[in-house]
Amino acid sequence: MTKQVRQIDRVIIRFAGDSGDGMQLTGDRFTQETASFGNDLSTLPNFPAEIRAPAGTLPGVSSFQLHFADHDIMTPGDAPDVLVAMNPAALKANVEDLPRGALVIVNTDEFTKRNLAKVGYASNPLEDGSLAGHKVSAIPLTSMTVKALEDFAVSKKDAERAKNMFALGLLSWMYNRPTEGTLGFLKTKFAHRPEIMAANLAAFQAGWNFGETTEDFAVSYEVKPAALPPGTYRNITGNLAIAYGLIAGSELSGLPLFLGSYPITPASDILHELSKHKRFGVRTFQAEDEISGVGAALGAAFGGALGVTTTSGPGMVLKAETIGLAVMTELPLVVIDVQRGGPSTGLPTKTEQADLLMALYGRNGESPVPVLAPRSPGDCFDIAIEAVRIATTYRTPVIVLSDGYLANGSEPWRIPEVDSLPEIRVDFASGPNSEDGTFQPYLRDPETLARPWAVPGTPGLEHRVGGIEKSDRTGDISYAPANHDLMVRTRQAKIDGIARDIAPLEVDDPDGDADVLVLGWGGTYGSIGAAVRRVRRAGGRVAQAHLRHLNPFPANLGEVLRGYDRVLVPEINLGQLALLLRGRFLVDVIGYTKVRGLPFKAEELAGVIQEVIDRVE
Amino acid sequence: MSNNPPVSPTAPNGRPLRGLKLVPRSDTAYKMKDFKSDQEVRWCPGCGDYAILAAFQGFLPELGVPRENIVIVSGIGCSSRFPYYLSTYGMHSIHGRAPAIATGLAASRPDLSVWVITGDGDGLSIGGNHLIHALRRNVNINVLLFNNRIYGLTKGQYSPTSETGKITKSSPMGSPDSPFNPLSLALGAEAGFVARTIDSDRKHLTGVLRAAADHEGASFVEIYQNCPIFNDDAFEPLKDPAERDNRLLRLEHGEPLRIGPDRGVVLGDYGELVVADIAEVGEERLVRHDAHRADPGYAFALSRLDQPAFAHVPIGVFRDVERPSYDRLMADQISEAQTTQGRGDLASLLAGGDTWTVG
Ligand code: SF4
Fold it and tell me: Whose Cα sits closest to atom 6 in ligand 1?
């Protein structure tokens, strides 16, 4: 039967199931298929902190949302057009997010009395009319998979486990996805277990065939490739982009990369990734704790390596003292904080932006540290290189604030030419630097205020550094009041001076007539951008700017802020950037905050922006 | 990083020092004064740290390592001021973290001779975790733990090696803590090299330093150090000429374990070591010291001989076994990856995975 193919410009799909159902893998494969087809896309994995919460329960639900389009998009989407629910828990946990008319594909095999009761369904939602507002496709995914694998040499359990591939096959048919990537993936993944490989391939094919033949689905859809700027693309998550950016920073600076890290969600993937790249001379040290991770990185930096540590909020707290030591010893160090919900253990697998003030001020004494924040998964690559550049040029620790959303979310990334990457020039001290022919470890470069980086092994430059206050120029221990005042101010001036060396803040104000500016930082770029587009489409005038440098701020920030009647600052915290802006620029910014562990929804933000516009006009 | 050829320094007998295989050799004939910095030494008069510093400065020339390839890393405490008084590279870091910092340095720079200076508070209390992990990993560093059994720099609180019941400023009715035996702890972490020496015995101290440098991987040396201000004479029984020979057990590899002329150490019924009169048990039953036993059980039993306090105190090298150092294993993995797959190429890394082209 030939089916109709309908053109659509974009779609949002959410795969949801039990933690053991392989939803992350399913979503990831669908994403790869979509990427290689050339759509623009954005993803939002969402999974519990527990590795395997009890099966079939609400806390055990894991989901993966993918938004793809034939034009450029900025977010994983507010509400799914399609929900694949592998069990009642997945339906219950996600049904409220569905707009009217959404397609719900459910695995009826799991809708047993017991499973329904487990999540508090008094009656079966597939039968009681509660899904009347949606299109429901009730499919016995598990039993169909098992049936399709009857002739395969796999256990019933393994056959059942392949149901996610059946679902993937079905969705791949429905959206005309290229399948070679997934077939190749399964062949490699199960190369050592041929019978499982065959079963998964067959389940995928069965799902595809089912779509083609069943009368449930009269149409399939096509989302044309997006007209992205020319270039070669790959799909990339924020964590992968950070790892690549760090390797690039190492190659560009000629410094061997040393990562000291302790496993922590959601940062561990950077450690995993970097540990694979020993060919680049990368040393990864899995430390006994967070403190040791950063300590070893600082020790390596003292020895002339590119010292890096990666962590998330709870780990940042533990690293504070060592970051202070790096401030005092003025050694390059890159600290990656993949923020998650806090305080304390908080929400390990959910996103948040609440470590900003900690990054800026969470150390004893006056302890200025440059702080950067990537704005999208792909931007993590550029920010990592920028962190390396600033750390090595200014001999300072640099904190990068990524977040759980950027870390696990993905988007198409235009692969840069290596020649186009910034140059990072590092000169180690090689001889005496003062007029009297001695080496003075705290005699500064007049322009950057950086002190010389003299690494062990360099004859004649033997010197001692440490956490006790240093005398200007000589670096000897000093408790002198005037010297301390000078050094505190000098360290601050060095960091403040970086503002001269970073790009000015760009404002997107197409007609130049907006009264309202929306200013964000870090991972909210996509949601704010999508919201701004909505407002503009509806005729609203609004400007958007996004900070990637949080300390120091771009030099023109004050001027930008004063150029608008009102400045709206959406943040996934309780207003940390807003506090800084008010304190620094005496500008009465309007904060908008949400801390649900999830990115902002574009629709919601658009409403907030429109309200501010209405108030001004 | 240094351009010097990686020629190994040698032990006095001409054999390369094992811990310095990858460290360049110096052409300069250094003197002790070459290792003194221009900083004024600021310990209290009579502090045991002076003697240790002098012994260390006197020992460094014989290492044969260029001064610039030696790095001293310390934490916080009286002893941790050490790096300032040496003319090498150094870092006076933060409380307890020196082993972690030194791990990063040694693991990324096998051409350096890295020494960690710590104390009983720094190394066993706030930094205990880093210490045991550096030891188990066998990072190529030498850890010198100055044990004065008290907190000096914070003015006299009990430390993790202070005896139970010790009356200090923070324990007016006596400390309820049980002390660590630093060597038992290091052996529990299966450190490859474990030794003990005393601040006042320069010759013995120098010998132990030499042996520590001669070990590839983590070397742990406990140095009994007197703090005349807050815990004076803590080790007096081991220093008093009339007493010491009845208490000190000088360990020599291959030699019987003897304490003074009349007593020695024999094996007990449960694997423990017991002190006995030689006349009673006979010379032949004395245990012969074997520092190279792979199993740390024997060395651990030796470390328990000081119970009750200072009853019998072995000094010297308890354990000296060879296994590959952490930094070597790390370097080997890198060279293996580069040999089998070639040096990494950034452009192909970035362009890896599933790609597609637009335009
Ligand atoms: S307090 Fe004790 S250990 Fe510290 S310098 Fe004075 S004598 Fe030495």
Answer: B44
Supply the CATH classification number for the domain A507-616: 3.40.50.920
Under 8 Å between Cβ of A359 and A368 = no
| Fold (topology level) of A234-420 | Rossmann fold (3.40.50)
**What angle in degrees, to the nearest 10, is found between the helix axes of B202-213 and B48-63?**
50
3-class DSSP assignment, residue A470: strand
pLDDT confidence of residue B87: 97
Cis peptide before B176 (omega within 30 of 0): no
Spell out which residues of chain A touch residue B106, defining contact as CB-CB under 8 Å.
299
Same fold, A4-220 and A507-616: no
Using only the alpha carbons of chain B, give its radius of gyration: 22
The pLDDT value given to residue B11: 58
What residue ranges of chain A have pLDDT lower than 70?
Answer: 1-2
Cα–Cα distance between A332 and A90 in angstroms, integer? Answer: 46
Question: Cβ B108–A256 below 8 Å, yes or no?
Answer: yes
Class of domain B18-254+289-350: alpha beta
Read off the DSSP letter of residue A108: G
- C-alpha span between B101 and A450 (Å, rounded): 22
Chain B: nearest CA to A241, how far in angstroms? 9
Q: How far is B240 from chain A (nearest CA, A)?
A: 37
Place of tokens 């799914």: A80
Residue A205: what pLDDT? 97
Q: Coil, helix or strand for A361?
A: helix
Could you tell me if B291 and B253 are in contact, meaning their C-beta atoms sit under 8 angstroms apart?
A: yes
Order of strands, edge to edge, in the sheet holding A516-521? Answer: A507-508, A543-547, A516-521, A566-571, A590-593
| C-alpha–C-alpha distance, residues A476 and A209, integer Å | 76
Domains of chain A, by residue range, sit at 4-220, 234-420, 427-501, 507-616
What is the reported pLDDT for A420? 97
Q: How far apart are CA B236 and CA A280, in angstroms?
A: 55
Per the DSSP assignment, residues forming a β-bridge with B315 are B250
> Which residues of chain B from 182 to 211 reach within 8 Å of chain A, CB to CB?
none
At A215 the pLDDT is 86
Long-range CB pairs of A208-214, under 8 A, 24+ apart, other chains included: A208/A169, A208/A170, A208/A172, A208/A173, A208/A179, A209/A169, A209/A173, A210/A139, A210/A144, A210/A166, A210/A169, A210/A170, A210/A173, A211/A169, A211/A170, A211/A173, A211/A174, A212/A1, A212/A3, A212/A173, A213/A1
β-partners of residue B196 are B222, B316
Cα B49 to averaged position of ligand 1 atoms, centre (Å): 8
Three-class secondary structure of residue A59 per DSSP: helix
Radius of gyration of chain A (CA): 27
- Specify the pLDDT at position B2: 40
Task: Report whether residue B7 contacts ligand 1, using a CB cutoff of 6 Å.
Answer: no
pTM of the prediction?
0.94
The ranges assigned to domains in chain B are: 18-254+289-350, 257-288
Query: Which pLDDT does position B1 carry in this prediction?
Result: 40
Give me the count of residues in chain A.
617
pLDDT digits (tens, 9 = 90+) for A170-198: 999 999 999 999 999 999 999 999 999 99
- Per-residue pLDDT, B3: 41
Cα A1 from Cα A7, distance rounded (Å): 19
Q: What is the DSSP letter of B5?
A: -
Tell me how far apart the alpha carbons of residues A601 and A98 are, in angstroms, rounded to a whole number: 13
User: Helices then strands (H, E): number in chain A?
Assistant: 20, 23
Please, which residues 256-295 of chain A have a Cβ atom closer than 8 Å to chain B? 256, 258, 260, 277-283, 285, 287-289, 291-292, 295
At residue B242, the pLDDT reads 87
Which residues of chain B, if any, have pLDDT below 50? 1-8
**What pLDDT was estimated at residue B141?**
98
Just give the CATH number of A4-220.
3.40.920.10
